[in-house]
Amino acid sequence: MDLLYGAYGRASDDDEEEPKRQKLARSSSNANSPKPKPYPPPPSNHSLHLQTQPLLPYISKRQRALSGAAPSIPDPVPVCNAIHLMTLFLFLSLGSISDSDLPPSILSLMRNKGKGHRDLSLIPERLSVPLYGHTKAVNSIQWSPTYAHLLASAGMDHMVCVWNAWSRNQKKARVLSFHNAAVKDVKWSQLGHFLLSCGYDCTSRLVDVEKGFETQVFSEDQILGVLKFHPDNPNLFLSGGSKGHITLWDIRTGKAAHSFSRSLGPILDVEFTNNGKQFISSSDVSGSNVSENSIIVWDMSRQVPLSNQVYVEAYTCPCVRCHPFESTFVAQSNGNYIAMFSSTPPFRLNKYKRYESHGVSGFPIKCNFNLDGKRLASGSSDGCIYLFDYQSSKVIKKIKAYDQACIDVVFHPIIPNAIASCSWDGSISVFE
């Protein structure tokens, strides 16, 4: 309990270790607006500063012939420097994460937070930006909440890509190849250019996208399929994996604060609710033929389930999403529909409303709400994007996006009529 209590402490709990001079300077300049403590700097062995070879004095051919001295051969470049050179070359050959080369219309929307263009009833209709770079299926995508022109994607090709989606030059801004197996999920931190990813190599990896540093690695004894940052404390995140374990990690210590487990099947998704005091987990319980326990609501402080009989139908749910304002959440069901539940006790299923017409067919199809919660978008096994009206649950738009399954669909955090989607064939698209 002491470890968990420490994990929920404010990000400034470690300030006692700072020198008094720095502490006084910070408090005097920013007394009324404390900022969260940034993630720790990367270890020295991940530095991109290259060690250059010492320059040799120039000796002419005549001088070498007269002296009879053999030309000295410099030592080979160390392997680590060669890797750094390759990484630096890759970064130089890709695009920029800056918003300096965005079209004026997009840049204006970004800087003005969408003011003047916040007609949330607008529906995406046409393909605006195709993004190609993954060679296998893309499992997850997410817009950056702080740098909204950047889109991250996680692929089965072991790569995490960062896209400067509307850039007029190179749209692929970063390729992060720190995982040595397929990557299942990727999430942006609220603390700037930090990106968290997890996958089949049983690790979650935190990367500074701007510098290309892998700052921390969180290892487990299970394949990891899902990540979720705490909504109020960016130093905490949940990870769920193939053995049914859910772990609460503290980035400040690099250690697990707590583990939530009921010996179920693989964790398919997790979602915070009630301001981070609770979270919802979805498990694959098809192997045990148990309909209950597929969706569980957990109490964070007491580390106990509040309910394990939320969804009693014999289907697994690859995705769970909370409504941004109302006390409800939805779950994508392998029964080819999206079910709705109350996110307050007794967490009941709404038997009179469901979102259907799309297909799941065993794919990890995801769904997401738009900015005001009036629209719900879902991928589909038929390669289409389905847009539903939240209140009526009717399909208001169907967009044919891919020949193979559309896996994930996410609304832009600022531009209301822009969505990004990804496919089982490795394609990523932005629709406006």
From TrEMBL:
Cross-referenced SMART domains: WD40
Annotated WD repeat ranges: 131-164, 217-259
Record keyword Cell wall biogenesis/degradation present: no
Gene3D superfamilies, A to Z: YVTN repeat-like/Quinoprotein amine dehydrogenase (2.130.10.10)
Coiled coil: none
Endpoints of the signal sequence: none
Residue ranges, annotated region (Disordered): 1-50
Biased composition (Pro residues): 35-44
Top-rank lineage group of the source organism: Eukaryota
Keyword Ribonucleoprotein: no
This protein's UniProt keywords: WD repeat
Protein name: WD repeat-containing protein 25 isoform X1
